[in-house]
Amino acid sequence: MSNIVKPIFGGRRSESLAGVIEVRGVLGEAVSELGTQIVGGTWLPGEAISKESDLCDEMGVSRSVIREAFRILGAKGLIRSRTSDGTRVQPRSEWRLLDPDVMDWRIKAGDTNSLLHDLLKVRLVLEPGVVHAATLMASEEARVRVRRAWEVKVHVYTTPDPDYAERRRRFILADLEFHRAFLASVQSDLLSQLFAVIEAALGLLLDMQMSARGYTTQMIGMEESQALHEAVYVEFERRDPVAAEAAMRRLIERAISDAHDGFKQRAP
After folding, report:
1. Domains of the chain (ranges plus CATH)?
2. Which of 69, 96, 138, 167 has the most CB atoms at less than 10 Å from its CB?
3. What is the pLDDT of residue 50?
4. How far apart are CA 183 and CA 138, in angstroms?
5. Quick one: pLDDT at residue 219?
């Protein structure tokens, strides 16, 4: 059984990530099915995937649909077609891993742990520096957004709700906006787009961390997380970039520890 975590949060990139190449209908379904099979290991890197005629029969689509699906998957770095060698899966190093479709297929295929491990490394490398830069560079408008994000996070944390699943969903959304607000303060389109791409996976990570801390039906184990976020916010308001960066690093290191506990809980 695959270790797929179903997200309980909403937003632009929740249960399905919007792809770089907008594909719908029969072609979209074919691309998604083949993409999920490839990243899931149905065909290993270097192996030739099934013949077009066999895929047409298996998927109930025309040869033109399969060929167009191959073209799209090739653009995402997953496969390479050659007349003399057929269509083969590319090495993982060639995959466009930041492509939203590829990330979505990894989740669907049960490659969640690998994806989340990668995400933890990205967070540890990027987010302390982002907060350092945001503390130095944020405009007053950007600072207002960070303040509002923190106020919402505090409100969600302190307001009881008999629907624990809904409270947990709102907690995750508030956490995402808190981190998103710091990114916006840096005013980097590249960083903002990176966050938009990984947002759904980050939500999955937060959900798993909360489970590892014990918060499944009540707000248990979130006190330390809230305190660590508050430390980041306080240093940001004090306009101390070094202290803010250090506070964010402590927060991410705690998140990594929680995530590792979560991975152990999910191990078969």
Report:
1. 25-94 (1.10.10.10), 102-266 (1.20.120.530)
2. 69
3. 94
4. 10
5. 54
The rounded distance, in Å, linking the Cα atoms of 225 and 43 is 41
pLDDT bin (cut points 50, 70, 90) of residue 107 is: confident
Please say if the pLDDT value at position 10 is more than 80: no
In which region does residue 11 sit, left (phi positive, over 0), alpha (psi from -120 to 50) or beta (all else)? left
Mean pLDDT of the region 232-245: 98
Q: Model-level pTM?
A: 0.73
Q: Which two tokens stand for residue 110?
A: 């049960």
Torsion angle, alpha carbons of 92, 1, 203, 210, to 10: -130
